Structures are given as C-alpha cells and as structure tokens.
Amino acid sequence: MRSELNLENQLVIGHVGRFTDQKNHTFLIDIFFEIHKQKQNSRLILVGSGDKEDEIKEKVNTLGISDSVLFIGFKSDVSDYMQVMDMFLFPSKFEGLGLVLIEAQAAGLPSFTSASVVPEEAKVTDLLQYISLKKSAETWAKIILDATLQRKDTYNEICSAGYEIKSAAYKLEKFYLNRLE
After folding, report:
1. Is 181 part of any domain?
2. Using CA atoms, how far apart are residues 112 and 24, in angstroms rounded to an integer?
C-alpha cells in the first residue's frame, strides 16, 4: 500500500479521527510542520472527515506542505492505513477512551497523545507516550523525532493488558456504562 500511496522511503506519520475541534487538527498540522522542517521525507496521512476538513486543508496549503499531507477521507477499516504509518499522533483536546490509540499500539506504532486528556487505560504498551498540550509544536516535534521509531510485535503485550478482542469489548462496554452513571 505504501507504493500505491507513493510513500516508499518516507517517514509516514498518521492520524485517524473526525475533523472536529476536539481532535485538534490545527495543532497536529503545526506539529507536522515542525517535523517536516527537519525531515523533508516526512508525510502525514489524515484518515477521517468532518466539519473542519476544509479549514485544515487551507492551513496545509498556507504552510506550503500540501504535497506532504494526504487527506484520505472516511474509512471504516483503518488497519490497512495503520500498516503504512511509522508513528501515530493524537493531540486531542478531550477524549473518551481513545480506542484508535489502542488500535495504533496493536499495529506496533509509536504513538503520541495529549497528557491529562486521554485516560491512562489507553496505554496498553510502552509505545504510547503522553505529551502536555501546554508544550509547543516544536517541543512535540522534538520529542517525537527523538523517540525510537521502530515498530515491534505487540500482540502479547496487548493480550496481557487485557485487550484481546473479547475482554476488550467487555472493558469498553464497562467503561462507557460507568461514564453514563
């Protein structure tokens, strides 16, 4: 799929989420812009759609990085796209469980998300790193670029953390039922 998307020999950073204020795409683009300054071979894949999509496309054009950002649109199965990614960014302003972060970790992706926003339950491997939204885009970029960008087999870690599909479904149901109370 990398060759289909013309992403061979590229550092592929990914994000999956609706284009809403909650998902913080504006800051995500700022982070990618800082990464791209240092890694010209970096590309950003954005999977999703939503009200803020045109605004984000305009920002990408204004920054002059439209050749480096791919807007994929809504996809019901994101696993193929996660296999193309080298890392996953998720700088949400607020979040429930952040199930997509668990999917990213299961795909072996080093993942970076908002501290004090995404619950600790989302950290099922050592691949997930929390960064404060009070930090600048430059700081996020530095932390991300300094991190080890190696994928690893995380199946056993995911299962031992209780995220085998049946127990994951049960925990997710329990999580949301507790939120409703």
Report:
1. no
2. 13
Q: If you average pLDDT over residues 16-45, what whole number do you get?
A: 97
Report which of 12, 8, 140, 30 is spatially closest to residue 68, judged by C-alpha positions. Answer: 12
Q: What is the per-residue pLDDT across 58-93, written as a single tens digit (0 to 9) for each?
A: 999 999 999 999 999 999 889 899 999 999 999 999
**Amino acid 151: pLDDT:** 47
Which domain, by its residues, includes 118?
11-152
The CATH number that applies at residue 70 is 3.40.50.2000
179 inside domain: no
64 belongs to a structural domain: yes
pTM over 0.85: no
Q: How far is CA 142 from CA 58, 70, 138, 146, 180, in A?
A: 25, 22, 6, 6, 38
Task: Give the Cβ contact number of residue 58 at 10 Å.
Answer: 11
CA neighbours within 13 Å on the CB side: how many for 34?
15
Please give the structure tokens belonging to residue 30. 């700022």
pLDDT at 168 over 80: no
Q: Does 61 fall in a domain? A: yes
Return d(Cα 114, Cα 128) in angstroms, integer.
10
